[in-house]
Design a protein that fits this description.
InterPro entries: ADH-like_C (IPR013149), ADH-like_N (IPR013154), ER (IPR020843), GroES-like_sf (IPR011032), NAD(P)-bd_dom_sf (IPR036291), QOR-like (IPR047618), Quin_OxRdtase/zeta-crystal_CS (IPR002364). GO terms for molecular function: mRNA 3'-UTR AU-rich region binding; NADPH binding; quinone reductase (NADPH) activity; zinc ion binding. It comes from Friedmanniomyces endolithicus. By secondary structure, this protein is α/β, with parallel strands linked by helices. It folds into 2 domains: 7-115 and 300-329, Alpha-Beta Complex (Quinone Oxidoreductase, Chain A, domain 1); 130-270, Rossmann fold, CATH 3.40.50.720. The protein is 28% helix and 28% strand. The protein contains 8 helices and 16 strands. The chain has helices spanning 49-56, 121-141, 158-169, 181-190, 203-210, 228-234, 278-294, 310-318, and strands at residues 7-13, 23-29, 37-47, 66-67, 71-79, 92-96, 104-108, 112-114, 149-152, 173-178, 194-197, 216-221, 235-243, 265-267, 301-306, 325-329. Strands 3, 5, 6, 7, 8, 15 and 16 form a 7-stranded mixed sheet that branches. β12 (216-221), α6 and β13 (235-243) form a beta-alpha-beta unit. α2 crosses α7 (278-294). The protein binds NADPH dihydro-nicotinamide-adenine-dinucleotide phosphate.
Length: 332
């Protein structure tokens, strides 16, 4: 494509901190696609909690200045060299890539796929990272079976709503937690038959009442620090405690002997280690898209923010004001 600009809009950080370190720029260089990469003009960029970890320094950025972002939907505008998995100029793609808080991203073709016919751009951008996370968690972190009792924290959040819908689709009994009545109603509508508003209900006693004192065979906990002990308390004997995030802060070191009380499994998985190979990535994308289309999953978009309004988006996410997915529109 001959008409590519040399400068683009984007959001960088030069140091870690609060939302004040997010810098909206209009003169960042448009990257060149290298070996195994395609240059993508982003239509919609997914916001994920992990972006806040890089901003605060909980996870170290590989370099500074650093463009945040991990996923987007857009159009291939230039092909790099090497293995591109059949991607070419003009293809609409969904991708997992660093540096997506920008108009253009040089993305690893191995983690990009063509958008399925009929899939709305916003839905695709909202689906990939959180949907794949939820899917790999219920398939591999704890392979959930029909009839299993499962506890999901932050059930009305982005990843939470995916977990709830996928768990319902595989026939699990879902117990969710949330902080407000609005969130409780939303997660119930998505398929969490039993919701606990932890602002005024005791989670452990409610879980034990529902499971007739057995507890849940799996707990999916993306809240982290504040819920870890509670999650272990809610676990069934021989259950899987799946700690997959740090929304409330990192879980402090755990003494392994604590697991013997229930012969529990403890896991700390990340999506990226379930989709290392192209085959793994394609397998889960295919399965996720099947769920979205055949099971008619509702991909809830909380709001679409202008790139220049990224600080408000991070504040809303960290302030627990959101339900479902937050997107950025890089053209604004
Ligand atoms: P969410 O949309 O779920 O937002 C976070 C939610 O966590 C809030 O809405 C809130 O729900 C709950 N929460 C409870 N305590 C706090 C707190 N102290 N501060 C902020 N939020 C709190 O975000 P995401 O779906 O983007 O991410 C959810 C979790 O999943 C994160 O920990 C993230 O890191 C993790 N994750 C992990 C991945 C992996 O590969 N391991 C991949 C993707 C996400 P409520 O008010 O109802 O309590």
């Amino acid at each position: 494509m001959s008409s590519l600009p040399s400068k683009m809009k984007g959001v960088i950080i030069e140091k870690t901190g609060g939302t004040e370190v997010l810098q909206y720029k209009t003169d960042l260089p448009v990257p060149s696609p290298g070996d195994g990469q395609v240059l993508v003009k982003n239509d919609y960029v997914g916001i994920n909690y992990i972006d806040t970890y890089f901003r605060t320094g909980l996870y170290p950025a590989p370099k500074y200045p650093y463009i945040l972002g991990r996923e987007a939907e857009g159009t291939v505008v230039k092909a790099g060299s090497g293995e591109l998995y059949g991607l070419k100029e003009g293809d609409k793609v969904l991708m997992l890539s660093e540096g997506t808080y920008a108009e253009y991203t040089a993305a690893n073709a191995a983690k990009a796929v063509k958008v399925k016919e009929g899939l709305e751009a916003k839905v695709g951008a909202a689906a990939l990272l959180q949907g794949l996370t939820a899917l790999t968690l219920i398939r591999e972190a704890h392979p959930v079976k029909k009839g299993d009792w499962v506890l999901v924290h932050a059930a009305a959040g982005g990843t939470g709503l995916w977990l709830v819908q996928l768990l319902k689709a595989v026939g699990a009994n879902v117990i969710g937690t949330a902080s407000t009545q609005e969130k409780v109603d939303l997660a119930k509508k998505a398929g969490a038959e039993h919701m606990i508003n932890y602002s005024h209900e005791d989670v452990k006693s409610k879980v034990m009442e529902l499971t007739k004192d057995a507890g849940c065979i799996a707990v999916f906990d993306g809240v982290g620090k504040t819920t870890f002990d509670l999650s272990l308390d809610c676990l069934a004997r021989k259950g899987s405690m799946v700690s997959f995030g740090n929304a409330s802060g990192a879980v402090p070191p755990v003494t392994i002997g604590r697991l013997s009380a229930k012969n529990a499994r403890l896991m700390r998985p990340t999506l990226f280690n379930y989709i290392v190979t192209r085959e793994e990535f394609e397998h889960y994308v295919e399965e996720l898209m099947d769920f979205v289309t055949k099971d008619k999953l509702d991909v809830r978009i909380h709001d679409t923010y202008a790139l220049s309004d990224v600080a408000r988006a991070h504040n809303d996410l960290e302030g627990r004001k959101t339900t479902g997915k937050l997107l950025l529109d890089p053209s604004k």
